[in-house]
Design goal:
- The protein is α/β, with parallel strands linked by helices.
- It contains 16 helices and 19 strands.
- Helices cover about 35% and strands about 15% of the residues.
- Strand 9, helix 6 and strand 10 form a beta-alpha-beta unit.
Length: about 475
């Protein structure tokens, strides 16, 4: 009999029972909550007269609406203040731990979970946010859920879900200079398509993935959802274990050793079966940039923008729509496209290693005239570490603004927004129309180092020319 992959092992461990619908009732080990998708769910619970079933498995923070300039209470925006107050009340009333700004652990929900050690191998993790797939970097099965499912998990710690197929995505070879985890996931999405992962969990593997730090692995898993996969994961290994050792919510002593044995056992077996296996040539990956209105519309920074007639017939309509919106010229190089805004942050690339990479580039020059450049750490811990390393001074000296932690301009639910048709070099994860706060604002996704290079040159630039 052949072995099992991690997805199947975790699934079987958490399956409560098969439902008449054919779905599985799946137990959720850890439920992460934030201010945007939880108020209605808590309200529904109140109406039903139900308590939170496992408050000690439920953790909350505030990230989407929090301003990054002045976080003093009451918040200047009454709607943001009301949402934060509501979350605080819901947590207090239900015995749920809330990582607010006063705790020193506030931040983007997908940044603080791993930082605190709440994210552990072999667990199931749910959150009312698409990019919950981030936590799969630890060998967890982690997925975003809708508001009614947030209610279900609050009330029962379970959701009803169909089993996914599993595709192993092997990234071979070795990354070149100036090529980062963001480029790897953009290359994967370019090759497999934004809908290529529908119905699948992605298992990322191969020498490029194995050589990555945990923070790089989180960047890759974060954007699994942009490739259509419900979740993405990486098998736990020594890198995972060393990252978790000593974290606040990770067991210590003998309990840690027992946990490690379990984490190793949950990894995919050497002879595990998959529904599909694909290979991506890591040696060929270039620093990448999106040019369109979904993350699959990306290319190497040295390439020219595709002509509508040159793309596959089924892609022509979306390519034409992208040009209509982005106002870029087919057949011209993407390098040199002038930017108005540079944003470094988000749950994809707002971690300390991202800020270090970007700072190394920021050191080489000054933000170009007319460019607004923001650096927003993913959490208070990242902010604190960055201060300890002198990174805010590096960025400020180069003309960047250093802000307080939050989602910021990734989704622009706070005051950090594009204006009009501004073109933004962004380290975030979605380049959908209007994503960054202006209905006509335009987004180019790239690695944090590439964003810093674009900020300094005032246009899309190959980071290898600056480093
Ligand atoms: S940083 Fe962006 S993608 Fe991540 S949780 Fe916040 S809004 Fe969502």
């Amino acid at each position: 009999m052949s072995g099992k992959n991690l997805y199947d092992k975790v699934w079987e461990r958490h399956a409560v029972r098969e439902l008449p619908s054919g779905q599985t009732q799946l137990f959720i080990g850890t439920h992460l909550v934030h201010e945007v998708t939880s108020p209605q769910a808590f309200a529904m619970l109140r109406e039903l007269g139900l308590p939170v079933r496992f408050p000690k498995r439920t953790f909350a923070t505030v990230d989407h609406i929090i301003p990054t300039h002045d976080q003093a209470r009451p918040l200047a925006d009454p709607l943001a203040e009301a949402m934060m107050t509501e979350l605080e009340r819901n947590c207090r009333d239900n015995g749920v731990e809330f990582f607010g700004p006063e705790t020193g652990h506030q931040g983007i929900v997908h940044v603080i979970g791993p930082e605190l050690g709440l994210t552990q191998p072999g667990s199931t993790i749910a959150c009312g946010d698409s990019h919950t797939s981030t936590h799969g970097a630890f060998g967890a099965i982690a997925f975003g859920i809708g508001t009614s499912q947030v209610r279900d998990v609050l009330a029962t710690q379970c959701i009803a879900m169909g089993r996914l197929k599993v595709r192993r995505v092997e990234v071979t070879g070795k990354l070149g200079r100036g090529v980062y985890a963001k480029d790897v996931i953009l290359a994967i999405i370019r090759q497999l398509g934004v809908n290529g992962g529908v119905g699948y969990a992605y298992e990322f593997a191969g020498p490029v993935i194995e050589a990555m730090s945990m923070e790089e692995r989180m960047t890759v898993c974060n954007m699994s959802i942009e490739g259509g996969a419900r979740c993405g994961y990486i098998n736990p290994d020594d890198t995972t274990i060393e990252y978790l050792r000593g974290r606040e919510r990770v067991p210590t002593g003998e309990a840690f050793e027992r946990a490690v044995a379990d984490w190793r056992a949950i990894a995919s077996d050497a002879d595990a079966q998959y529904d599909d296996v694909v290979q991506i040539d890591g040696d060929a990956i270039e620093p990448s940039v999106t040019w369109g209105i979904h993350p699959g519309q990306n290319l190497g920074v040295g390439e020219t923008l595709p002509r509508v007639d040159d793309v596959a017939a089924e892609d022509r309509a979306s390519v034409a729509e992208a040009y209509d919106y982005m106002e870029l010229q087919p057949g011209t190089p993407i390098a040199g496209a002038k930017i108005d805004v540079a944003f470094i942050g988000s749950c994809t690339n707002g971690r300390i290693s991202d800020l270090r990479e970007a700072a190394a580039v920021a050191k080489t020059g000054q933000v170009a005239e007319g460019v607004r450049a923001l650096v927003v750490p993913g959490s208070q811990e990242v902010d604190e570490q960055a201060h300890a390393e002198g990174l805010p001074e590096v960025f400020r000296a180069a003309g960047f603004e250093w802000r307080k932690p939050g989602c910021s301009m990734c989704l622009a639910m706070n005051p950090d927004k594009l204006i009009g048709q501004e073109l933004c070099a962004s380290s975030s994860n979605r380049n959908f129309k209007g994503r960054q706060g202006s209905p006509t604002g335009r987004t180019l996704l790239m690695s944090p180092a590439m964003v810093a290079a674009a900020a300094i040159k005032g246009c899309v630039t190959d980071v290898r020319e600056v480093l």
